[in-house]
Amino acid sequence: MKYRFPAAVGLAFLSFLGLIFVMQTFERPPVSSVQQGFRGTGMVQVANPRLAAMLRDVNQAPPALEAASADGDRASTIYENVPLLGHLSIEQFGRLMQAMTEWVSPEAGCNGCHVEGNFAAENVYQKQVSRRMIQMVQRINTQWTNHVEAVGVTCYTCHRGQPVPAAHWAAMPEHGARGMAASADRQNLGLPSVGLASLPHDPYSVYLAGGADIRVATRTPLPSGNRQTIQGTEATYGLMMHLSQALGVNCTFCHNSRSFASWEESNPHRQTAWYGIRMLRDINADYIAPLRDILPPERRGPMGDALQANCATCHRGLSEPLYGAPMLRDYPELAPAAAAPR
Length: 342
Known about the structure:
Photosynthetic Reaction Center, subunit C, domain 2; 2 domains; two-stranded antiparallel ribbon
């Protein structure tokens, strides 16, 4: 006699599989929420304590080295070829070199940037890159305080003990691996860069290297006055997905949900983000992209360009990088006042 599997059992099994699938889309309690705006506007930040604990271990600033005296002879009086930091005292210079080694190349040590036995030589390309990055850090701490405020940045903010920051981006080929429904720019593939959404995969080239207008909300219902496009809207949403992931927040961290376009009804964080986007445009265009010609192939992207910065490069899932550790206070050698020779 042929055994027939009871329909009720099969239905129960399928329901169980469906429940497991659905549950994967939910946050397991407890989940905390904090009201950030007026009641009824939906301006609430939701946080998962378990995910927060995972982020804590990879976002700790290292203990600051013992402070150095600014007194005494300048570094340029005993070291050769120090055009950028020669105005520091010998003690300050040594402290900063020790810190940079730990921040960027703890395994290679001094030889990560210098020729062993001849520190004045320019043979190692990393030395040229480091010099330009120091200038970039000084510019951020001087010109972009509307974004970094008094906290400032150091090399560790991005590098975290690695020669190349873990979070970066580069231009991608238009015709890469594509799914059945994917377009030329690999839309519909659900890539991590846009939160696995069906959006153009590279919002960075347009908005963090280029200066495309991010505000896509039309001001008129008439086609003759509407210059915004569906493509521009999708690319903008892709950038917003990146911002949300990079800072570990949702849309209402910056926006009022009743009127996303309104600056008057937005949180102050939106203004900070506005400056951050323009800071990235500045440093990518003036400091990082021009390094392409001196970088070896393994330090470039698929299209041969330099690996550039986005919001995740510093933030790593936190609204305040390194939980707001006072990097500039601990390393005054990189403060605005130290940027000009004495």
